Amino acid sequence: MDEIDRKLIGILRRNARAGISDIALELKLSRATVRTRMEKLSDRGEILGYTVVLSSDAFELPVRGIMSIKIEGKGAERIVAQLGAMPEVSALHTTNGNWDLILELGTQTLLELDEVLNRIRKVDGITSSETNLLLSTKRSSRHISASRRGELSIGD
After folding, report:
1. Which residues 6+ apart lie within 8 Å of 59 measured at CB?
2. Measured distance CA(35)–CA(107) in Å, rounded
3. 105 bridge partner residues
């Protein structure tokens, strides 16, 4: 998956009903290119549905972490939008206290997580961060169930 695919998935995460024309405009690509990329992502099993359910969301990722972030100035809205578009960010929370944002991250490998952390740290306006790896989950309110039609649905 390249950077364009990551941006495309980020757009679909924000609005799974976004029109191909709107996506093409945002990505500065032709409609045909966007449609082809969406079809390839579906064919490879990266996109399972257009609520958007990614294979990485439906199956527990082996490398997971929580990243706490401090933001400088008034760029919070822009930073939240940038981080929210990253497919490796499964949840993004605003918070009080020493940290401004808490991210839940998931990747297949430690190397991928390291690359994501480096991309996040380069976002203009992020002044500091702290990341903790999640070793095991003893309890979670998030569950995955298969519907009678064989589609995956994720419930909270």
Report:
1. 144
2. 26
3. 65, 89
